[in-house]
């Protein structure tokens, strides 16, 4: 096996990030201060929401959003079977019940809105959607179903920072940003995400009560922050909720601001590379490229192709590995992990079909068109 030449993802860091970190060190305030506040304000502006609350990671964002939505013991929360495991783990941690919904199909591996109607019971409390690969779910239908049944809608927008919904719909205005549509939107800034700061996350919401609760729970349920006390704005505090420490530090807050400023151009660049992949692979017999007819403005987080069968996938992944090209797969069917063995998991045929065939290909702003052509050629050769 050769040394890895083309990785799955890579960060876009340069002198701006270095300068941001040095600025924080020179200012001598390390956590939850002016950088984090500015990052939150700039992020809220980008999304067009009232509140953006920075937290330690995407999982913390989901946790606080679930608590603020009121998910508790015995509540059923409908969620896609194709997802990173964080949402489902947290559902169980809150003693709620994850109810796994099937995805639409290989061309659209996001939650099938029709599944919500199939799975709804008197105990259903909420729905979690995940905008797979940076492409928004069918939000017009989903928001309508949630409204009709009074379900709390949480968006796992970890793949979709900067993505825009361009279908006009009654409950989803044209141009709505991913994460700004449901009761709360959750983001991750993990090292391989489109906006990467190492570890970090954000909860976005227009709901004042959700925002208040998330802010309190982020830091022990305390009514004032040490930054406020440092500036003499508060001398004491009360603890009004049993909270956590999910704070973000100033170093990563400053990195977030630099990465946010680069986001639009980087997402556009990712889109160009996705287009190059599509042109190279579109006519490959038996293979599916998800979201070919997607109408919105994706964040292009992942480049995924779906092989005709599991053995074709293995053959192609092996061929790519021999050429030093890293691949991954997003994701195994969550319902089939051991930790969910006692959960209801019928009717997930399309999720399992997808999980057995999907391949994630390299995608990051500094990938080049010749590299995409090389990857396409290896896939085409192995698929013959
Ligand atoms: C990355 C990711 C998460 C978790 O975010 P962390 O910052 O790693 O906690 C959750 N859901 C999805 C879809 C993700 O991609």
Explain this structure.
With 384 residues, the chain is an alpha/beta fold. The protein folds into two domains: 15-260, 3-Layer(aba) Sandwich (Aspartate Aminotransferase, domain 2), CATH 3.40.640.10; 263-383, Aspartate Aminotransferase, domain 1 (Alpha-Beta Complex), CATH 3.90.1150. Helices cover 39% and strands 14% of the residues. It has helices at 15-27, 34-47, 58-69, 86-93, 113-119, 139-149, 208-218, 226-230, 250-281, 310-322, 349-355, 369-383; strands at residues 51-55, 76-80, 97-101, 103-105, 108-111, 124-130, 152-156, 184-188, 201-205, 303-306, 358-361. Helix 3 crosses helix 4 (86-93), helix 3 crosses helix 7 and helix 10 packs across helix 12 (369-383). The radius of gyration is 21 Å and the shape is globular.
What topology emerges from the helices and strands here?
Blueprint: H1 15-27, H2 34-47, E1 51-55, H3 58-69, E2 76-80, H4 86-93, E3 97-101, E4 103-105, E5 108-111, H5 113-119, E6 124-130, H6 139-149, E7 152-156, E8 184-188, E9 201-205, H7 208-218, H8 226-230, H9 250-281, E10 303-306, H10 310-322, H11 349-355, E11 358-361, H12 369-383
Parallel strand pairs: 2-3, 2-6, 6-7, 7-8
Antiparallel strand pairs: 1-9, 4-5, 8-9, 10-11
Helix pairs in contact: 1-9, 2-9, 3-4, 3-7, 9-12, 10-12
The site of pyridoxal-5'-phosphate (PLP) has 13 residues, from helix 3.
Q: Helices and strands: which structural class?
A: alpha/beta
Largest beta sheet, briefly?
7 strands, mixed
Mean pLDDT: 96
Bound molecules: pyridoxal-5'-phosphate
Hey, roughly how much beta strand do the residues contain?
Answer: 5-15%
Give the low-pLDDT segments: none
SS summary, helix count: 12
